């Protein structure tokens, strides 16, 4: 089965035909580094990590570019609020982002460009837009002139009058048209700025991705991804800038957007008390459980995040890890994932169907714990980015599995004491120790090979 992708641009599922079958290029909008990433930020990271893993299985070379926005008004506001240096904020926050995403088993992209390191490319692109009649300078600003692009709005399917009416903002006096958007703006002395032909200033948000994607993937590339909330205005504006500056009909051939994330049936909001960062959730549950939970829904669908849902995902993964624990001496064969699993992923990344195939593979492995069946199960897991943790660590909360872990040595000492009590037929002491461990959140599993344990 050929890989099919739902293309937001055409509103239909299409067979994927790369520009170069030997080298696929994908660009995904990354974080603005001013605070911890929230659970909604994690969804595109997980989705496009799986997409990258799939592409790497199907094609000889994949270049996955995900940017970091480290110049932005939100960052400037954070610096003024805290009194911290902007560079300190962006470096710390970027490091936190990398740590949290790694806990979700997300691999690093091939290239992770930073906006502040590509100002020259942005200025050069803006100069070309002015030269070609698509942009103009006014009052220290440079703006893209939207009416200069007849098919503006093609991605979001919005009419010009609707876009202007829906903005509900006062139109700046220096704009030729209400829909025109900023490519460059002046910087005050207390915010970052760079010298340019239009004075000291900084780039608008949209131009960043256009310049960086062009540098690493070319004028036209295969796949552009991001959250559904970026369709308008960010991705719409990227198309306008890039096509006009590069004189191309296409910026990206396929546009992929993951659906909105809700929390307990409502929009995530700090005022509602349902705003969760990945960092704080990792204190409660393993990152792999968050990842598995996200993949239980098709990426284009809206996703309603609940704490109960995460716990169910953790319990499901427990069953997979239990099988691996019971047959840990079996060495997995080097085999491919089954056709049914691959067909699910090739059908616009249908991860729920792929997971159902994985359950069938688990059943087969439990019935026949052969090297082949374990290999099949692990091949599926590798593509989804799960079952990557230390088996005992998964059950005991050791390592980076999330908080809630207990002192493993202390637990083992109590288990050994209980075993001695049972040998001495001191069942009262054995029961007391079991109750003590239960109060600690430790579940004992007695078997022929001894007693193992896991956290509730």
Question: Can you describe this structure?
Answer:
The chain is an alpha/beta fold. The chain folds into three domains: 245 residues, 3-Layer(aba) Sandwich (Rossmann fold), CATH 3.40.50; 115 residues, Four Helix Bundle (Hemerythrin (Met), subunit A), CATH 1.20.120.640; 48 residues, no CATH class. Helices cover 45% and strands 15% of the residues. Helix 4 packs across helix 7.
Lay out the secondary structure.
Blueprint: E1 4-7, E2 12-15, E3 24-28, H1 39-58, E4 62-66, H2 73-82, H3 86-103, H4 119-131, E5 135-138, E6 141-144, H5 160-167, E7 181-186, E8 201-203, H6 205-217, E9 221-227, H7 231-246, E10 252-258, E11 261-263, E12 266-267, H8 278-281, H9 287-295, E13 303-305, H10 307-326, H11 339-346, H12 351-367, H13 371-384, H14 391-396, H15 408-423, H16 427-439, E14 442-447, E15 450-455
Parallel strand pairs: 3-4, 3-9, 9-10, 11-13
Antiparallel strand pairs: 1-2, 5-6, 6-7, 7-8, 11-12, 14-15
Helix pairs in contact: 4-6, 4-7, 6-7, 9-10, 11-12, 12-13, 15-16
